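Listing S7. Sequence submitted for prediction.
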Amino acid sequence: MQAAVYEALGQTADVDLLFHATVTALDLPAPTAAHALGPAHATITTTSASTSAAGAGSPGEPKTVRARLVVGADGGASAVRRLAGLGTWGWGYGQDAVVCTVRLADDSNNGPATAWQRYLTHPAGPVALLPLWGGYASVVWSCPTPDAQV
């Protein structure tokens, strides 16, 4: 899916693709009475030799861009979210997951692996096998936090 999105964006004249960079400042317009917002101004600093449809930048070289839409899809410790002043809230469930990738035995007679999940005796939590590609699968065990930290 990532490759398809990248390809589609690369064919769009209104989109500049910029890699190896981070948002270091974000100036959001104040809402007006009509709630019509002007464009945001984001300062983007390259973190290494950057490639871009809009031109390459040197490491550490800031570039300011205007955008009517800023998407913070940069992970749980999102710099975009922090710079926009957006808070988060949540709670713990007392559970974590132990995850590993395994290679499945070659069993071409049974076709591709199917996902399965088993509920273990409380408090062990469920364990799941999630097929990936090329004969690999992820094993995910949801368990109490102390068990996951062993």
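Caption to Listing S7: primary sequence and predicted structure tokens for the chain studied. Strands lie at 21-27, 40-46, 62-67, 95-103, 116-119, 126-131, 136-144. Residues 30 and 37 are 7 Å apart (CA to CA).
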